[in-house]
Amino acid sequence: MPYILISTQIRLETGPTIVGDEYSDPDVMNYLGARKTTMLGNNFSEYHVDDPPRVILNKLELIGYRVVGMTGMGQTLAWCLHKETM
């Protein structure tokens, strides 16, 4: 999958960070040290890490991902990353 969306709450900018959904590449999630969780009341899963977004962005850059967009929505910060496919 060439795209990844990561996000965090502004008040939690030191972590945890949401790094993927239930369809994310398991190899990338394992590399990030992410754990798959389902919040009570949700019918979907997300991958979380305790690291702050900066650490995750650095790790993803090392394996070829680049930030293509970033935004703030209410109390949430989100980054979209892309990796060129061969």
From TrEMBL:
Keyword Nucleus: yes
Organism: Megalops atlanticus
Keyword annotations from UniProtKB, A to Z: Cytoplasm, Membrane, Nucleus
TM annotation in the entry: none
One record GO biological process: negative regulation of biosynthetic process
Superkingdom of the source species: Eukaryota
GO cellular component, one term: cytosol
GO molecular function: GTP cyclohydrolase binding
Family to which the UniProt record says this protein belongs: Belongs to the GFRP family.
Name the UniProt record assigns to this protein: GTP cyclohydrolase 1 feedback regulatory protein
Record-linked InterPro entries: GFRP_sf (IPR036717), GTP_CycHdrlase_I_reg (IPR009112)
Compartment(s) where it occurs, according to its Swiss-Prot or TrEMBL record: Cytoplasm, Cytosol; Nucleus membrane
Top-level taxonomy: Eukaryota, Metazoa, Chordata, Craniata, Vertebrata
Keyword Cytoplasm: yes
